[in-house]
Design goal:
Helices cover about 45% and strands about 15% of the residues. With about 325 residues, it is α/β, with parallel strands linked by helices. The protein contains 12 helices and 14 strands. Strands 3-2-1-4-5-7 form a 6-stranded parallel β-sheet, sandwiched between helices. A 3-stranded parallel β-sheet has the order 6-8-12.
Length: about 325
């Protein structure tokens, strides 16, 4: 992994992953791929090359791969879960037609490919507690359908053509860098913004709804480590469960109140998001990722909460 293209570099994961790759893997080049209207800014713009990279434009992606001699593609282009339910045809186009473009280019140009999956790939018939690595996957959302198809298609290209495809099933991701943008688990980010600003938070997810979550630094490390791992011990590829913490809204709010006691919350449940959340696991078994490539998260709930508050106070200049 030397010359890397990150498609979706200005999104939730891509904006931080691109900077991490540039910092941690010197000696090559990491290209920030973006679509018009979401141009890189600040450090992301100034720290390395960037190119317009529409995942649905195969010729455009192939040109970038050739220009920079790309050997690894991080394909992060996607609509998040709640947004995908509002725009299902657009979600399919980006997440499936775009994926075919990437896999075909990877087959021809001998690139490795990371396309993340999600807890959204599971459904209401999946065991909710300690969800196994290999289990029934019958999602009821368009987001989930595309994630299952992504896993299967990525495995197909590995088995049939030898394309080095790898991925993880991310839980909900929590970050202070990128604002929330249409995900079912976004409440776990939004509440921090409200808490730091001293605003009341209106929670769209019902109390008692457990979901797996992960702090962004752990997610970024997982995305890097799986692509750097030697596949000698791989029994799986697409996709590995990775887990860190599981909580329901009241547990998160209680942890925040230890540092911001006056946090005010009321509930206004969004039926679309709640339906999606109810179909997802409460917690995932990530023992295969731990055994096969050494996955191990660093942050606990309490450590994540403290770090989020410290960094958001700096971001908004709040004491």
């Amino acid at each position: 992994m030397k010359n890397i293209l990150v498609i979706g570099s200005t999104g939730q994961i891509g904006s931080e992953l691109t900077l991490k790759l540039r910092r941690d893997l010197p000696g090559g080049v990491t290209v920030a791929g973006f679509i018009p209207g979401s141009e890189p800014t600040g450090k992301l713009r100034d720290s390395g090359p960037f190119e317009v990279a529409n995942v649905c434009d195969a010729a455009q992606i192939e040109e970038i791969v050739d220009k920079y001699d790309i050997d690894t593609i991080y394909n992060l282009a996607a609509l998040l879960s709640a947004t995908a339910e509002r725009l299902p045809l657009k979600a399919w186009d980006i997440q499936m037609n775009g994926l075919i473009n990437i896999l075909e280019i990877a087959r021809q140009k001998h690139c490795a490919v990371f396309t993340p999956s999600s807890i959204g790939s599971f459904g209401p018939n999946t065991p909710k507690q300690n969800t196994p690595q290999d289990t029934v996957q019958r999602p009821t959302s368009m987001y989930g359908v595309t994630k299952v198809a992504t896993e299967l298609l990525s495995d197909y290209y590995f088995t049939k053509y030898g394309v080095d495809t790898r991925s993880v099933r991310f839980p909900g991701l929590i970050s202070y860098t990128t604002p929330p943008g249409g995900g079912t688990t976004d409440y776990a980010v939004e509440v921090f913004y409200a808490a730091v600003k001293g605003e009341e938070y209106v929670c769209p997810i019902a109390a008692g709804t457990y979901m797996d979550m992960m702090y962004m630094p752990d997610a970024l490390q997982a995305a890097v480590d799986i692509m750097r791992a030697k596949p000698n011990y791989f029994k799986h590829r697409n996709s590995f469960n990775v887990a860190s913490m599981s909580f329901e809204p009241e547990q998160l709010f209680a942890a925040i109140r230890k540092e911001i006691p006056d946090l005010k919350v009321r509930y206004a449940v969004d039926p679309v998001r709640q339906h999606i959340a109810d179909s997802w696991p409460d917690s995932m078994d990530d023992s295969c990722a731990r055994k096969e490539w050494g996955w191990h998260p660093r942050f606990t709930l309490e450590e994540m909460v403290h770090d989020m508050i410290v960094n958001l106070r700096k971001k908004f200049d709040v004491r």
